């Protein structure tokens, strides 16, 4: 696995676009998130359909066509330096096939930020554009609005990425060791549901896999990991970092599943790495060469997340 193209870092005064790629967005939370971005001396613009609701499916922020059009228009706008997702939920997979990938490629590298359901976009931007992306807090997400840690780590990654080249989680080793590779990952169930699609990578070979999830019981996590193992998707993975598992049952019940399914791969594995749906979530880049030290609980990037 080779490193991907890193987009330029942000500078004060940059215009950033906020899009709703998936679930519906609460207006008051969006307003609070925009205030934070303005305090960073950014110029946020809200895509036209961010506050829409799908007429038939209340779990979607507007129609698939409108969500895709918002993302494409924002990405292709030469005045926009970054596209920030407003929230996750569900729906990115429904609109990703509607994007004009040639137009997105022609627009050049830009920063994409999001997590959870946005995993489908992380995979697509890697597979179709060869572009590194940021798995980080979303503009209207509760954790971003309330957590100074989440805010500061994202801000530093966007503006001063050399200051966060070593990401220290405080996590513990499930399997001790060090490994080098290119970062990839996201929401575990989303990675599994992307298998076989034209926008997903064929596997994690040579990569440092960063995974987390929310609302999946231990047996479901077992099933997803077993699917990835049986399909060969985890063959050749170099190392694994495990993020948050909110709503996935008591961790003392989930942990043996993670040990059982991942411990036999013979690669370093670190738990509780502090990214994902948990409180104070860290921002981690995908597509960047790094070293994982599971005993130390660190991920050290060979270069800053953004150029």
Short description:
By secondary structure, this protein is α/β, with parallel strands linked by helices. It has helices at residues 27-39, 64-76, 92-95, 101-106, 119-129, 142-146, 148-159, 188-193, 218-231, 251-262, and strands at residues 15-19, 43-46, 80-85, 111-114, 133-135, 166-168, 172-175, 178-187, 207-214, 239-246, 269-271, 284-286, 289-293, 298-301.
Relevant terms:
307 residues, alpha/beta, 8-stranded mixed β-sheet, 6-stranded mixed β-sheet, 10 helices, globular
User: How many helical stretches?
Assistant: 10
Calculate the mean pLDDT score and round it: 97
Query: Regions with pLDDT < 50 over 5+ consecutive residues?
Result: none
Helix content: 25-40%
Strand fraction? 15-25%
Q: Would you write up a description of this structure?
A:
This protein is of the alpha/beta class and 307 residues long. 31% of the residues lie in helices and 23% in strands. The chain has helices at residues 27-39, 64-76, 92-95, 101-106, 119-129, 142-146, 148-159, 188-193, 218-231, 251-262; strands at 15-19, 43-46, 80-85, 111-114, 133-135, 166-168, 172-175, 178-187, 207-214, 239-246, 269-271, 284-286, 289-293, 298-301. It has an 8-stranded mixed beta sheet. A 6-stranded mixed beta sheet has the order 2-1-3-4-5-12, sandwiched between helices. Helix 1 (27-39) links the parallel strand 1 (15-19) and strand 2 (43-46). Helix 9 (218-231) packs parallel to helix 10 (251-262). The longest helix has 14 residues, at 218-231.
